[in-house]
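Study this protein:
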Amino acid sequence: MLIYPAVDIMDGKCVRLYQGRPEAIKVYSDNPAEMARKWESEGADFLHVVDLNGAVAGSPQNLPAVERIVKGVGIPIQLGGGIRDVVTLEKVFDVGVERAVLGTTIITSPEFVAEACMKHGPRIVAAIDARGGKVAISGWKEGTGYSASDVIKELELLGISRFMYTDILSDGTRRGVNIEAVRALVREVDIPLIVSGGVSSLDDIRGLRKLEPMGVEGVIIGTALYEGSFTLREAIEAAGGRGC
């Protein structure tokens, strides 16, 4: 199972939010590229980067910081936050991002998602951000009423080959992962899942690793790493001994 350290960027800084709320922010570094290099030095083989300003604004706002990360590390990154049209998608890939994470557009612009999948295939990741089992969009501010499993099934038809599932109420809280909810979700779909939100202990990682045969291929970890609940090397070992 893959471990993705999270590098969330707001106003050019590396931060963490509580349940995605901008007012509940903690700054960990003024230099996201330096933080990315730290995770690489500790064994990461893939990074999950989010442009938090972009997620709210509807277009990337921190691409210079993202480009510095790409140039500063020797490992691939996936980027989410404000990627909502073809021009932006190509711009993101042009700066060296390996995978683009699409969120809001999976609901608002399925034709764009289909076009992106047709052109870029496995480089496209669909972000399913759910609150109480219902998908939320626009930086988690707007509810849709659609269930996560129904949306994922539709995305499979559009050509999505990988998706990321975030439990919004768990994100940034270190309350633990709802393993049973993840188990129920992967039972209903046939494409690989990356889990995000709420990891609090190595036991969470071990629990998710047991679901690897069902399709859980990775876990994104943020606050627990930044707060020192465990080290990245310990997380990689709990996941099976590799970052990617």
